[in-house]
Fold this protein.
Amino acid sequence: MEKLRIGLIGCGAFGESHLATMIGIPFLQVVAVTDVIPERAQKLAGRYGVPRVVRDFRELCALSDVDAVSVVTTEDQHLEPVLFALDQGKHVFVEKPMATRVSEAEKMMEAAQKAGLLLMPGHILRFETKYATVKEMLASGQQGRAVFIYARRNRPKREGAIYNRTPLPFETIIHDIDTMLWYTEAKVKRVRAYERQVVVKNGADLFCSTLEFENGALGMIQTMWLLPDGTAVLDDCMQVVTTSAVANIDVTHSGLTVWGEEGQLSPDVSYEPRLRGGVFGALREELSYFALCVLSGRQPTVVTAKDGVEAVRVASALVESAHSDKEVELASGL
């Protein structure tokens, strides 16, 4: 089978997850990596057998044997590498959120459309089995339509100290925003959000919000970086109430719990479980789907650039609401 030749832009923790996943996909070939910290890129390339480490994303995108790139830089640093890659004729996978500004996300989408290239945002829950199964249920119409969705996404304090570089709606809540948009198939009409700074020195580590959709559905999202450090890393759940059913998604209690000297461990069995020397789960499904779309010359339908822009639009409204302490009305959007 033909292989998609891909370059990795960004070698942080999740960049490594991308790399570890991609090298195990038989129709993907990682040909080069780059990072703003050269030593980090060198270390990752050596660990995973990537043949080339280049100076920056411009040099990587100029390589003739690179067909596509995966952009896994920090949340507010996606625009420049994405636009440059598209300008160089490369297809692009960009991690969520597409951007932290609506205008930047729109520029990316417009550039991809103009170039006739594939741009896919990394909304991983669309590829996680439990979340995708609920979507299938809703799409069938057999259990009615979603009228209320509640989501919880909590993390230990130690993670907040690392990831509070970005407002919570763009870091963790973006997952649930996208999923609610996916489930309701409706745009958000208005939002109200509240945030609190409890432990972290900068930003907020507690965030609560309500979303009203144009079709009348309601959503509530709660997230925080306040769990004790000895708890499981993931405390995620979602309840979807339809006109005739209730679906409960529980990622926290995966069915596998390990008690160690440092407390409870809940190994990941959903997103990127490590098995037999490889990475499986939703991340593998997502990156495989991207590669197959490029190789077959078809635009993705499971998740699109337009979906990514809409999620950024809602996240931006949540930030505005929390900062202004007011309800925010959203424009009609795309």
In short: The mean pLDDT is 94. The chain has two domains: 4-122, 126-271+312-329.
